[in-house]
Specification:
The structure is a single chain. By secondary structure, the chain is an alpha/beta fold. The protein is about 50% helix and about 15% strand. The chain has helices at about 5, 20-40, 55-65, 85-95, 115-135, 155-170, and strands at about 10, 15-20, 50-55, 75-80, 105-110, 140-145. It has a four-stranded parallel sheet with strand order 3-4-5-6, sandwiched between helices. A two-stranded antiparallel sheet has the order 1-2. It is globular and about 45 Å long.
């Protein structure tokens, strides 16, 4: 029910929501990860632990990887809602900080099948360029994929999910 609040790290006055993203990430780290670790034999070291989402889930995943690089070594940001709070992620978060090396590996994608998705691609490309200018190696530490003709929906995210997984976790 609190999706717009929990998947965003900052309040967006135009949406009248947001800002509980850090609490959500804290919950993942303090509750969910230990629960999974207690029930399954999994490696949750930083080199293997990833966070990935689409739309607002892509935004909070990118934010989580950028601001908590010692936790998440792999970050998937599919068709991310980088427009949130007047493009705050690309205008403030990325320019004002850089995760320490070794950098998390980022995968970002978007489509071109609607006006909104073309904007998403423009924002994603801008963030990709900012990361490269901050020393992220393209094709190694930051990947971008543009799905020509794709719109902002699971119909398109599902078939391209493997691209992000393969970039983040190469054989």
């Amino acid at each position: 029910d609190d999706r717009m609040d929990e998947y965003t790290y900052i309040y967006d006055p135009s949406e009248g929501a947001g800002g509980k993203g850090d609490l959500y990430l804290d919950w993942i780290e303090s509750t969910l990860i230990p629960l999974v670790q207690s029930e399954f034999r999994v490696d949750i070291s930083r080199d293997t632990l990833g966070i990935m989402g689409s739309s607002l889930g892509g935004l909070i995943s990118c934010y989580g990887g950028w601001t908590r690089p010692t936790i998440y070594g792999k970050v998937g940001c599919m068709s991310s809602s980088f427009w949130w709070d007047e493009n705050d992620f690309q205008n403030n978060v990325v320019p004002k900080s850089t995760p320490n090396a070794p950098h998390p590996v980022f995968y970002m994608d978007s489509g071109t099948g609607s006006v909104g998705e073309k904007q998403c691609t423009m924002y994603t490309t801008n963030i990709h360029e900012q990361m490269v200018s901050k020393g992220f190696a393209p094709g190694e530490e930051v990947f971008q994929y543009v799905d020509e003709g794709a719109t902002h929906s699971e119909t398109y995210w599902g078939p391209r999910l493997h691209i992000g997984i393969e970039d983040l976790y190469p054989a």
